[in-house]
């Protein structure tokens, strides 16, 4: 009795699961392109793969369903029927002798990621090499955070022949070497003395297989080179040189499970953008860890007499105002620390219980003296200097206590 209830429940459950909308399941829109469907499959099949969720039946079911949804939506005719008549229409179509396109979910997985459909952490599955790329983004993106994308060219399993290398899917075992890829021949060294020599089978070039009609897309090599675009989430405050791993997105081959694609996120050289919001002073800030650095130029008058204001546009366009009142002197090379105007701290580096924190902005003041003056101006300044110098001037040469040239004699 109990068993029967369980059986009924399981049946109901599978009905509920089966009835889940394919588009919703893959997280795509009704008008999703072939590329978007493939992308969704890549992401979800890795997420729900049983090797990654050992013992989790619901993940396993999802993995199967994702493959089913992919199989349906990638086929133009099945997709049309599904769009019009839903799950039931699709079932009828399959029963009515429509082209069956049921793939084993693991087989489908292996057509995307190579190997035999498993991740290769167990069971001695071969794993392809990891791939490393550098992606440069401007400092602005490290400050504001940004959802962007990048494209890499990689080796992918040929989708025209599904990685078989054969146009009609027919792959035969080489009859010369019997599939071993090697041939053993006997060479006579001297009368009655033979040596066995092992050499590569030249009928199949060591592959052990023969294809009558090579795939026209990959020429029988089973793989093609193609660009692939990945999403890149630059998080606020991410450190320069951070490594982001895209699991199983390196070069693919039917002979192995694809390795990981590893992105090194580096900072691009500063460059004023073309859009208004990109034209900020902040573009030229220098970053060290969570702190930012900026050099501000003051004239002699400003440094000495005060009464000036500067508006620095930060990386997100907000303004940091610097100013001195009349009479406030700034010595050359002074460094002013502006709290809270450095980089945002990356969420992984925030102290516990803190939602947001910033480093500081270092402002180094550089004072520029005029090297040319109008004659009249020079005269006026000179006489002011003379007047006040005589009154209370300091003679640095005399008052320093250094020996005069006279003392040296
Ligand atoms: Zn052979
Ligand atoms: Zn091919």
Automatic annotation (TrEMBL):
Residues 145-227 form the CR-type domain. GO terms for molecular function: Hsp70 protein binding; unfolded protein binding; zinc ion binding. A zinc finger (CR-type) spans 145-227. The keyword Aminoacyl-tRNA synthetase does not apply. InterPro entries: DnaJ_C, DnaJ_domain, DnaJ_domain_CS, DNJA1/2-like, HSP40/DnaJ_pept-bd, HSP_DnaJ_Cys-rich_dom, HSP_DnaJ_Cys-rich_dom_sf, J_dom_sf. The keyword Coiled coil does not apply. Coiled coil: none annotated. GO terms for biological process: protein folding. Keywords: Chaperone, Metal-binding, Repeat, Signal, Zinc, Zinc-finger. PROSITE patterns: DNAJ_1, DNAJ_2, ZF_CR. Residues 1-18 form the signal peptide. It holds the Pfam family DnaJ_CXXCXGXG. Residues 21-86 form the J domain. SUPFAM superfamilies: Chaperone J-domain (SSF46565), DnaJ/Hsp40 cysteine-rich domain (SSF57938), HSP40/DnaJ peptide-binding domain (SSF49493). PANTHER family: DNAJ-LIKE-2, ISOFORM A-RELATED (PTHR43888). This is DnaJ-domain-containing protein. It comes from Lepidopterella palustris CBS 459.81. The lineage of its organism: Eukaryota, Fungi, Dikarya, Ascomycota, Pezizomycotina.
